[in-house]
Amino acid sequence: MKDSLIILSGGMDSVTLLYEKIERISLAITFDYGSSHNKMEIGFASYHCERLRVEHIVIPLRFIHDYFKSSLLEGAEAIPDGRYEIGNMVSTVVPFRNGIMLSIACGIAESRGLGRVFIANHSGDHSLYPDCTDAFITAMSTAMRNGTYGGITIDAPYTNITKSDIAAHGKKLDIDYSKTYSCYKGGKRHCGKCATCLERKEALWKAGISDTTIYEDD
User: E strand or H helix at 135, and its extent?
Assistant: First the structure.
């Protein structure tokens, strides 16, 4: 039953969720909020939607780039290298990004007669991004349900699992992860040094997937 839409970035997590829940998804939404990596992500999101014959729309959120403060919005040189740690990566937080995106997705879902919004946040996000936590997702889902005639809810099945667990799901689904993008710096090749690149490498290795990503540091 096609009763859902998905917020699709074009990265490993949301692409995996797209394939895993494809029987329920009738629409994929990608948000262009002016980050360094949006352009590369959007291309891969479009690729998978075309492959799976899912309607795909890209919604511009230029105001986030213009008015919000985050190193993700300042260009590649502003992105720190190294693993996800509060002291290292807090600059990459885009304030209330998921709240804004989920609110828009909720309105579109009700407009389309859909009852569910899928999002692919995972446990590795929790310590750094407050709008990826189980508490936030639960509260936001309650607000959406109470604020819509259709009782729209959020389905975030990866909230309490790791990126490696997600990659293991993708391995079973035979997903080609070379057709996804993770690097925060937004180059044509993954930099191999930022937190998302390092997390990507580790997740693929732990899942036993051959990493065919081309990295700048190779």
Answer: helix 134-146
β-bridge mates for residue 204, sequence order: none
Residue 16 gets the label, from left (phi > 0), alpha (psi -120 to 50) or beta, of: alpha
Bin 5: left if φ > 0, else alpha if -120 < ψ < 50, else beta: beta
- Over residues 145-180, the pLDDT tens digits come to 999 999 999 999 999 999 999 999 999 999 999 999
Lowest mean pLDDT among 2-6, 48-52, 73-77, 195-199: 73-77
Give the C-alpha distances (Å, rounded to integers) separating 82 from 88, 125, 209. Answer: 7, 15, 22
Residue 92 confidence class, pLDDT cut points 50, 70, 90: confident
Residues 6+ apart with CB under 8 A from 156: 118, 119, 120, 121, 137
d(CA 79, CA 94): 13
